[in-house]
Amino acid sequence: MALPRLLDAGEAALVAEFGDRVDPAISDRVLGLDDALRADPPAGLRETVPTYRSLMIHYDPLVLDRDALAARVRALAEGMEAGGEGAGRHAGARWTLPVCYDPDLAEDIGAVAEAIGRPAAEVAALHAGAEYRVYMYGFAPGFAYLGGLPEALAVSRRATPRPPHPANALMIGGGLAAVATVPMPTGWYVVGRTPVRLYRPDQDDPFPVAVGDTLRFSPVDAATFASLEARAAAGESVARREP
Amino acid sequence: MSLLRIDAAGPGTTLQDAGRHGYLRYGFTAAGPMDPLAHATANRALDNPPGAPAIEVSLAGLAVSAEEAPLGVALAGGEFRIALDGEPVPPAAVLTLRPGSTLTVRAGRAGAWCTLAVAGRIDVPPVLGSVATHTRSGVGGLNGRALQAGDALRIGEARPGPGEVHALVAPWLDRPPEEIRVVLGPQDDAFAADQIAAFLAGPWTVTPRGDRMACFLDGTPLTHARGYNIVSDGIAMGAIQVPGEGRPIVLMADRQSTGGYPKIATVIGPDLGRLAQAQAGTRLRFRAVSVAEAVAARRAEAEALAPPVAREPLVRSAFTPEFLLGRNLIGGVVDGAA
C-alpha cells in the first residue's frame, strides 16, 4: 500500500489520507498511524481524528512546525510499510452488546424487510450474525460508524429524513451500519436498540468504545431489554468486553 | 461572590470557553468562540486566564445586571451598540457593573458576535472539561442551552473593573470582512483550475441562514470535477465545503467533527473571527495564502495579545460628531427611554 497523501486543512490541521474508500486495510493504516502518533505525541499535537480513510491531525502551529509534523508522519508511515511497529492489524477491544430487534423498539425493521423482500426476523438474524468494526465516530456525540454490514442489508438511505431516532439505536443505511447514541433526525433506518450507551458524560470513561474496536450483537427480547435498560440508566455497564 | 443576572437574552447567546478539545475522535464538536480573537481580547483585558468562560452575545442582544458586588466587565467583538444605564459605551470596553445598573448589548452596524467577559470565574460545572455550549447536542453552558432571561451566573473571585468606562485600544479587532484568507485544500483537487479561480474571484455574499454551525455563502455556483460524494473525513474549523449545488458553506465552531462534501479550502485561524463577524449581505472574496503566511498571521495575533490590553478613559465632552454617529446615539436614547 502506498504512503499517505498529506493534505493541509488550514494551518492547524494536517490530513494523512490513505485512500478514498471504505476498506478494512485502509482503516488499519489509519489506526496504525493514530496509535503510533499518540504513543509518542510530538509537542504541539492537539488531537487526532481517525476516519474511514484518513487521519486528521490537529496541531498548534506556533509550537509544532508543519513540515516537522509531516516528516514525522511520513517516517511513521514508512515504518508501518516496512513491517515495523504498528504495521499489524490494529488490536482493538472486542465487545458484545445486547440488542433488541422487537419491531416495537426496532421501528424501521419492517421497512427494511420490505425493501429487501425478506421477513423482519431474517433482517434481525443477518444483522446480529455479523461482526462489525468501529471505523470512526462523527455526526453527533457517540455516533459510531460501523463496517461489516452484510451485503444483503445494503439498503440505500431514505429519500427524506425520519424524525429523531430513539437513543442508542442500531441503524443501517447506504450500505453502512451505525450505533447512534443521541437522538437526531436521520436518513437511516432503525433496526434495533441496545441498552448500551456509547456516550455517558457522567462516567469516568465517557466513551467506552474506541475507534478500531470490534462489536458483536447479542439478541435479547423486549423484557430483557427493559431490565438491561434500567440497569444501564442507573450507571451499570451492560456490555461485555474482551481485551 | 457576585451574581450576574440575565435580564433579557435573545436566541443564540451562549457561554463559551476555548472549546471542548480532545473528543473530536468520538464525534464530539469542540464548540468554543465564533470569534476567538474577540474572546481572547475580552479575557485578556480583565487579566482572566486565556480561554476563561465568557458570554458570546448574538445579534439578538442581551441585558445583564450585577447583584451583591460590583463586577468588572469587558466587551469585545463586532460594533455592537452597548449602553450602561442608557449611556453609550464603546464596542470594545472595560467597565464596572454596579448592583442596580443595567448593561445592554444590541446589534450595531457591523459585526455579528460580542464577547462579554467578567472579571472573575463564571461558576458553571464543566462537561468533559469545558463549559462551552453546544446547543445541538445539549451539552455545556447552563443545561446545554442558550442563556435566557432569569438565568443567574455565580461569579467566583469577582473583581471590580475601573471606576469609569474605558475604551479598549485593540486595533486588531478592526477587521473589515471583505477579504478572507484561506489555505487551499484538503480537497482542492476535486475542482478544476478554473473553478478554483472562480472560487477565489468571488464575490460571495453572506446569507442570513448562518449560525454557530456554518456560514452559508451565495454566488455563482461552483462545479465539481468528479462529483461531490466523497468518503467522510475530518473537518477543521473554517473548512469550506462545496455541496452538490455548488454554493460554499464555511463550517464554524459548532460544526460536525466529520463530513462528506469536498472541502475546497480552509479559512486561516486569524480570519475565522473576521468571517464570523460578517453580517448577512456582506460581500467578500477569498485570498489563497501559504501555510507559512497563515502561521505568521497567527504569530502576529499572539504577539498583539501578549502585553496587557491598553485602555483609555472616555471623556464624555470630547465625543466627536463622527463618534456619536458611529454610536447611533439617537437610537440609543430612544431605546434607553423605552
Automatic annotation (TrEMBL), chain A:
It comes from the Bacteria. Signal peptide: none annotated. Gene3D superfamilies: 3.30.1360.40, Cyclophilin-like. Residues 4-209 form the Carboxyltransferase domain. Keywords: ATP-binding, Hydrolase, Nucleotide-binding. It holds the Pfam family CT_C_D. This is 5-oxoprolinase subunit B. It comes from Methylobacterium isbiliense. The gene is pxpB.
Automatic annotation (TrEMBL), chain B:
InterPro entries: CT_A_B, Cyclophilin-like_dom_sf, PxpC. It comes from the Bacteria. Keywords: ATP-binding, Hydrolase, Nucleotide-binding. Gene3D superfamilies: Cyclophilin-like. Residues 25-305 form the Carboxyltransferase domain. Coiled coil: none annotated. NCBIfam families: urea_amlyse_rel. This is 5-oxoprolinase subunit C. It comes from Methylobacterium isbiliense.
